[in-house]
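Sharing a chain and its predicted structure for anyone who wants a worked example. Both blocks are below, sequence first, tokens second.
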Amino acid sequence: MAASVIKLLKNKKPLLWDGGMGTQLIARGMTSDTLPEVWNVQRPDDVREIHAAYYAAGAVAAQSNTFGGHPMKLEAGGLADRTEELNRAGARLVVDVRPKGKIAVGDIGPCGAMLAPVGDADPTVIKDGFRRQAQALAQGGVDVIHIETMFDLQEMVLAIEAAIETGLEVMASMTFERAPHGFFTIMGISPQRAAAELTAAGAVVVGANCSIGPADMVELMREFRKFATVPLIAQANAGKPRMEGGKVLYDVGAEEFASYVPLLEDAGADIIGGCCGTTPEFIRKMNAKIKK
């Protein structure tokens, strides 16, 4: 029987999540012309080691290397017909190293296509792609599915509905930017609307990840907490990215990032982790700050 995030939260909170996956893959040599999900079958030991490092740093959960596992995303590399294979493989890698009492998470990101009124993608095709991905992750043995980094509420709801069909708990995180009058996704979705509609769609945990640093994430969590009726997850970036010497660097180090953990707790976050630019060292520092 799959582990339950909600049951864990009843016994202990906040829960410490993992950090960035892409940052770690790049550090191990992944290039921009490679789809990350291919490493699930070509370099599985590297992916396992990344998950194991996050668990060892103190994370209760690690997320599978399947962020771009929707068939529309995989089609960019001519791999749409391997959707089930790559997602199942990604799920099994995190399950392989999951310590007893911890959680293996099936990760789902945006499909890469735009729905009306911005684009003309077929919602039925998009939902079927999310269904294929979610079912493969479930077959691979994950405990929960986390749909993340979404900015289009229509797409998010389609993904939640498809993932719920697996019978697993579904978590949902959208990505926000600071605007003059508050926080909104680039499609204009507010935290209030996101909290209400993600919960109505069936998500058992809602929240935000990516795009903003930890200071802004504290403010965003305070806003979310006003409206959310379910637990909240917060996974900030390590500040703003910048290019230096051909590499992407972030302006918030592990020690500074970890200093925001008590503030995120006070703001109402029930699950705290990292996104782009964060590493197992960030999680280790955060583990020292989190309330026991």
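Comments welcome. Residues 123-139 form the longest helix (17 residues).
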